[in-house]
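Q: Sequence in, structure out?
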Amino acid sequence: EICRAPRTGELCYKCPSDQRVLSDGGCGECDRARDAGLLVAALLLVCIALYATHRLCNHAAATERLSRIGCVGALGLLCEFVQAVSCLFLLKVEFGSPFSDMMLFIKTVVFNFELLHLSCLVSEDPLVELLIKLLTPAFLLALFVGIFYADRYARPRKHARGGSEPRDSSSAALVRRAEQRHSLTGLFNTSGLIVLTFYTSIALATFTAFNCFEADDGVYFSASYEGVECWREEHGRMVGVAAAFIGLYTIGTLVFCVVVSLQYKRKLLRDPRFAQRFRFLFGRWRAQVYYYQSLRLLRNLLLAAIPTLLPYDEPQVQVTLLVFVLSASLVAQLRLRPWRVDALNLLDGGLTVALLLLLIIMGTSLCTSADGVASTACGMARSQSVVSTLLVSLMMAAGLLFAVVQWRRLLSSSTSFDIFLSHHKGGAGNTARLMKLFLSQGTRARVFYDADNLNSLDLLFEAVRSSRRVVVILSAETAQRPWCVGELAVAYQSGVPIVPVVLPSGQRLLDTLDAGSHALSDEALELLAPYDITRDDVAEVMEHVVFALEKEYSESAADATQRVVRRICGGDAGAPRQSSGLLPRDLLADLRRFKPDELTKSADRASIVVAGGGDGIEAASAAVYLKLELQRSTQ
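A: Exactly. Output:
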């Protein structure tokens, strides 16, 4: 009798069988044809999103561009942010319009399907509604497996070729990497990434059955499933099902991540494919903070648990604990800077700050009654609701903009460098620097000199992938340096042509490699393992350099530079070789006119004399480099 017609039942939660519950307290007519069409459209959008995830995420670590990691990471952060906002929306706070209107759409991400009107298509039984939420992750994974195999068998020819012609036709590794992208390991990694991304939603779906509030008559009801009296028979069944899924999904996923992370150091070298198999756990983070995914899951678990497992009628306690969890995670994130793409650290920190600001607004909208219990009588003012809506919208727009920028960089076919100079600093540092000076002053070629950028292997390998050619200067200890070997492995697996230049000391290296010895230490391999570069990969690329590639033998930097230019241009005259088509025509013409001897001519009136030992190519290169720099700085 006290319910607004046509609602009936305890707490007025029921509507007639042909109507659905509205959030404003009334009932709405069911249009099953329209609702079924809406459900089909939603499933189609989910399929498109899963297919895009499949195409975007299944790539080998050594060939994966940082822009791809940035794009996937930004989209993942946005999903986690939306799920965290949905957790805050469960607090006992009167949010008001327009923030509550926006949340009607956002809550779909946490498996709340009010927008799809499922109550018109399936039973209104709360247990059925709970099972739909709990089984949705398994359904999404099954759907993704179907999409994976459909794509694998629908486009086998393109898979075998990796989607495009490799830049180096001799790079058989490129074909293998393309095949790995559609292997069971690739399927496992992408499925794991989906589970980790939606971990907050999974945890929230399992915890909501425990979320109860006290009605005016002292009876406790479920805050998430209307009309269900807590700790009665019906609610007991729901709690039992939720507890089983907590062990299977929520706790199971966290324990799995912790156990695998504890094995990281021990298995990284013993199991050559360990890093590849669990890239979804370690691939987004810097190698020094490989364990960060476990911390991330713990944070998301607490975000879901605090609003649902703690007493619903004590929002002030929930807000305080949420502020503490987010503040601690922000401090850890800023201190560790875990993301491999540095801009993602800024985006992650910004999204966490936005969540803290939302909590501050919620805290100011709580009122305290005379008995000291928090009340929602005040609620959010409209201005606060508008500010909250703008804050969430602004952060989502910033994340989407960043993802779009990274995606455009990924699609761009342009390269950042024409030549990547790889060398061992101790054996060829002076020669390599002089070659860079020759190329920079005598041509318009964009040259990357690796010795100036050794602070990050990520940036170093990204420069290799973004170069037209890698020129490696082979000296006695090149094969023992992880940076040099890693650069060659990334170039080989990415299809970037390699031009070996052999110095006098490099002949010893060739003799050693010819004998089948690849003396790379375990410490060096540990640096490369997070990038899916194994001992076998190192042996393969060095064998490729020794036996398959034409080498340029030289005893001076000027001669070596001239030989590299001839190699790139395909000779002094005539049409360039097929591989030289990687360079623009104007740069090819510029390189053909390159004469390093003109850069080293003596001045008519020498005011400074550079003298030095000429016993080796390194000493001679140092003297010539000093002379050229002095000439440039005194002119």
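The chain has 26 helices and eleven strands.
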